[in-house]
UniProtKB/TrEMBL annotation:
<dbReference type="InterPro" id="IPR013108">
    <property type="entry name" value="Amidohydro_3"/>
</dbReference>
<dbReference type="InterPro" id="IPR032466">
    <property type="entry name" value="Metal_Hydrolase"/>
</dbReference>
<keyword id="KW-0732">Signal</keyword>
<feature type="domain" description="Amidohydrolase 3">
    <location>
        <begin position="371"/>
        <end position="422"/>
    </location>
</feature>
<dbReference type="InterPro" id="IPR011059">
    <property type="entry name" value="Metal-dep_hydrolase_composite"/>
</dbReference>
<feature type="region of interest" description="Disordered">
    <location>
        <begin position="207"/>
        <end position="234"/>
    </location>
</feature>
<dbReference type="Pfam" id="PF07969">
    <property type="entry name" value="Amidohydro_3"/>
</dbReference>
<dbReference type="GO" id="GO:0016810">
    <property type="term" value="F:hydrolase activity, acting on carbon-nitrogen (but not peptide) bonds"/>
</dbReference>
<feature type="signal peptide">
    <location>
        <begin position="1"/>
        <end position="22"/>
    </location>
</feature>
<keyword id="KW-0378">Hydrolase</keyword>
<dbReference type="InterPro" id="IPR051781">
    <property type="entry name" value="Metallo-dep_Hydrolase"/>
</dbReference>
<protein>
    <submittedName>
        <fullName>Imidazolonepropionase-like amidohydrolase</fullName>
    </submittedName>
</protein>
Length: 460
């Protein structure tokens, strides 16, 4: 009954939000953080019209006829952008029927696409929305091969249309985990990755014989690469007998080679990071993003020189594995100082997306630790807003309060990087969102529960 009630509540919220329309409003007198790396602005104003930000900062004129909210004593920020999450892919991790994070028994790998499996009614989405998260990238986990499949960009609005961009990136596992999946050695993982990319290159060349799709390379995905029926038999015959990919998987990797689909590579140790960077010499079209990168500070200048962004979890400072021996909480700050674009991410499982402000706040606090390297308030907040948005391809449109950006606005009861603060209002595309969820309803239910409210099962 409780599960059914939770589902009913979630669906009711989605239905109400679907019928809502964007609001025109202004919030005045608040401390405003625009998310672009700058420091907060005292007594600022944010104006949203038609689902878009019109202006944000000090001295902003308020258009006539719109709703004005007094933001005194509050902070107003862009919505948090959670990088590399598993939002909407599972309900109960131990219940296989509700868990779509990985597909270990699937006949496909790179062709796997998380978008159709994302559940907008998931309680994890509702809980993250209550924490101020308005957009996220959703990343699959590997199954039986180093290729996990294609991730998506989503919004966390309480409606049934969560996916903003399907097939937004391809994720591949290297390092220790990749070695295990590829046959027990990093040499096998690199051979497998290079073989797959070469197969995809050959496949894309053959597919081009059929006349193409008529669409520019940057708008193509693995789902719409051309396969002329007249050439299908010849294509299959032309493929060598030792190919490792299905035709569907090979097609899915073609946009990666063209650079129209970023390749997210999970690596931790410095040597593996350098090997991942070397991929761009053999495959110059790759749009590379490094994920994990616990030892990134050791090769930060090389990462910066390559212009490759990083998604990392800054609180990693204990070497759980051999590939993390040089892990330190100063990792993110040192990479940032070296010129690396750094986003806070890997927000999945127990490390929930709503905890991103705590991780960012720790980076600010590190500046007070002798010998440690952290970030300024503005830099740390950008690492959970504008920077992950830029890495996802939504730079200037999400994770910032600037003219023309999406109307994702969060009102906090205090400094968002302090653990004692919480959102009091959340807007996505200018639509105010419900903040209740299964956890908050349970909290209300048991807040003042006495013995008379206990169910009969507790009678002795």
């Amino acid at each position: 009954m409780r599960i059914a009630s939770a589902i009913a509540s979630a669906l009711a919220a989605l239905s109400l939000a679907s019928a809502a329309s964007a609001q025109d409003f202004a919030i005045t007198g608040a401390t405003v953080a625009t998310g672009d790396g700058s420091e907060p602005i005292e007594n600022g104003t944010v104006v949203v019209r038609g689902g878009r930000v019109v202006a944000a900062g000090s001295g902003v004129a308020i258009p006539a006829g719109i709703q004005v909210y007094d933001g005194s004593g509050t902070w107003v920020t862009p919505g948090l952008f959670a990088a590399a999450t598993d939002l909407g892919l599972w309900d109960v991790g131990a219940v296989a029927e509700s868990n779509d994070v990985s597909a270990g028994n699937a006949p496909f790998s790179a062709a796997l696409d998380v978008a159709p499996a994302i559940n907008p009614a998931s309680q994890h989405i509702a809980i993250s929305r209550e924490g101020g998260v308005t957009r996220a990238t959703v990343m699959p986990a590997t199954g039986s091969t180093i290729f996990a499949g294609q991730g998506a960009v989503i919004d966390l609005g309480a409606d049934m249309d969560a996916v903003t961009r399907p097939r937004a990136f391809q994720f591949v596992e290297m390092g220790e985990s990749g070695a295990r999946l590829a046959g027990g050695s990093r040499t096998a993982a690199h051979a497998l990755l290079r073989s797959a990319l070469r197969e995809a290159r050959e496949y894309g060349g053959r597919a081009g014989i059929a006349g193409g799709t008529g669409r520019p390379a940057e708008s193509r995905t693995g789902d719409d690469l051309p396969i002329d029926p007249r050439l299908a038999g010849r294509d299959q015959a032309d493929r060598n007998s030792d190919v490792l990919l299905t035709r569907f998987d090979a097609a899915a990797l073609v946009p990666v080679l063209e650079g129209s689909q970023p390749l997210y590579v999970h690596v931790e140790r410095a040597a593996d990071i350098r090997s991942a960077l070397a991929l761009t010499r053999e495959f110059p079209g790759l749009d590379l993003v490094l994920v994990g990168v616990s030892e990134g500070w050791l090769v930060a200048r090389e990462i910066a020189a390559a212009g490759v962004p990083v998604i990392t979890m800054p609180l990693t400072d204990l070497p759980e594995r051999f590939e993390e021996l040089a892990a330190t909480q100063s990792n993110a700050g040192r990479m940032k100082d070296a010129g690396v674009k750094v986003a806070i991410g890997l927000l999945m499982g127990m490390n929930q997306p709503r905890f991103a402000p705590q991780q960012a706040g720790n980076l600010v606090a590190l500046n007070n630790v002798p010998g440690a390297t952290g970030m300024t308030w503005g830099e740390a907040f950008a690492a959970i807003t504008s920077v992950p948005a830029e890495i996802s391809g939504m730079g200037g449109r999400a994770g910032v309060l600037r003219a023309g950006a999406m109307g994702d606005v969060v009102v906090w009861d205090g400094d968002p990087l302090e653990v004692s603060s919480a959102p009091v209002r959340v807007f996505i595309d200018g639509i105010e969102q419900p903040l209740d969820n299964h956890q908050s309803r349970l909290a209300e239910r048991y807040r003042d529960l006495d013995e008379s409210d206990l169910p009969k099962a507790y009678d002795w």
